[in-house]
Amino acid sequence: MLADLSLPPGSALVRTTPEFTVDTVPAGLLSGHRVAPDTWGLLCVREGEVQPDRRHRVEPGPDSRFVVEFHR
């Protein structure tokens, strides 16, 4: 069974990261990490592919471009 991947009703965008590439992605996103309580991160892939792993880390492909949107 797939989890419901929608944002909670009433959540609002509070900030968006700069666009990252395989060369500019922060090290913290490449290893296990968490978002703050009551905050949801939405990974927006603009080009290429980025593999989110079950342990909550990303693996950007060589041509990927993406941002992370934070919602509360």
Please give a structural write-up.
The chain is 6% helix and 40% strand. By secondary structure, it is mostly beta strands. It has one domain. The strands form two sheets. Strands 1, 2, 3 and 6 form a four-stranded antiparallel sheet that branches. A two-stranded antiparallel sheet has the order 4-5. Strand 4 (50-53) and strand 5 form a beta hairpin. The mean pLDDT is 86.
> Helical element count?
1
Percent helix range:
under 10%
Question: Which structural category fits the helices and strands?
Answer: mainly beta
Average residue pLDDT: 86
Shape estimate: globular
Uncertain parts: none
Total strand segments: 6
Q: State the end-to-end CA separation.
A: 26 Å
Instruction: Give the domain tally.
Output: 1
Proportion of residues in extended strands: 35-45%
Radius of gyration: 12 Å
**Major pleated sheet:** 4 strands, antiparallel
Question: What is the chain-wise order of helices and strands?
Answer: EEHEEEE
Summarize the helices and strands and which ones pair or pack.
Elements lengths: L12 E4 L3 E2 L5 H4 L9 E8 L2 E4 L3 E4 L4 E7 L1
Antiparallel strand pairs: 1-6, 2-6, 3-6, 4-5
In short:
With 72 residues, this protein is mostly beta strands. It contains 1 helix and 6 strands, in the order E-E-H-E-E-E-E.
Throw out a few tags for this protein:
72 residues; mainly beta
